[in-house]
Design a protein that fits this description.
254 residues, mainly alpha, 81% helix
Length: 254
């Protein structure tokens, strides 16, 4: 009988140890799992922090590009103002139809040193946006509204290239058309100091009934107005984007 009780007692002791070992093992497993979860959480936070830093760097670069676009638009607007003024001065001289020395000199100046044959193209500075797209990390900009507005802005500026090409072609065609008509012995001698024997043509005289010349000048003026309205819209979008980027950078820094 004593042997039976001793065996039973030993059996209970072994069971008790096993239970303690099992509890210990489970505790170790739980601690390991908790450690893994903490490590994953820290890694996630670190990745989030790194991505936030990258987002700020990208947005800051885009902001610099947008400021550069604003400066460029202001310069083009100033140029357009000067060119449009010259166009109407030319039209005024043509309408007078008077080949006076003063009118000749004024018109000659416009056709040689003026802006009438020039065109200022707007090319958005998109280095920051290009880097963002090429990296395939556009999702770094977490705010969807801001991301979409940036994309829309750069898509709209790229579409403006076609309109600029039309303006360039019209200006070139006008130059090729008008220059031969305005060459005269007087103008060539004025420009070069040399004598030529050309069939006499006068600046001003004859241009007042030249529908193509007048139409081209008016078309150039309308293109300036159209370009101005497009650039004005770009300017509004830029202002909105800069404000949004500034707010995003400010809140992220906090």
């Amino acid at each position: 009988m004593a042997k039976i009780f001793r065996a039973f007692r030993n059996k209970m002791v072994k069971k008790s140890r096993f239970r303690k070992y099992l509890i210990y093992a489970m505790g170790e497993i739980i601690l390991v799992v908790i450690g893994i979860l903490i490590a994953l959480s820290i890694n996630k936070l670190n990745n989030s922090y790194q991505n936030s830093k990258k987002e700020i760097i990208i947005l800051s670069e885009i902001r610099e590009n947008l400021v550069a676009d604003t400066i460029q638009i202001n310069r083009i607007a100033k140029f357009h103002k000067t060119k449009k003024k010259e166009i109407y001065s030319i039209l005024h001289l043509i309408s007078q139809n008077k080949p006076s020395e003063e009118n000749r000199n004024t018109l000659l100046k416009y056709f040689t040193t003026g802006t009438i044959f020039e065109i200022k193209e707007f090319h958005s500075k998109s280095v920051g946006y290009a880097n963002l797209i090429n990296s395939g990390n556009i999702e770094l900009i977490k705010e969807r509204k801001l991301r979409n507005l940036i994309t829309q802005y750069y898509l709209s500026t790229s579409k403006n290239i076609g309109a600029m090409e039309v303006a360039k072609n019209n200006t070139r065609q006008f130059k090729e058309y008008i220059i031969p008509k305005t060459i005269s012995n007087w103008s060539l001698k004025k420009l070069t100091g040399l004598d030529f024997e050309l069939e006499n043509q006068e600046y001003v005289v004859g241009l007042n009934n030249d529908k193509k010349a007048i139409s081209s000048l008016m078309q150039m003026s309308m293109q300036i107005d159209f370009s101005g309205s497009v650039l004005s819209e770009f300017q509004k979008n830029i202002k909105d984007l800069i404000n949004r980027i500034d707010l995003k950078i400010k809140t992220t820094d906090k």
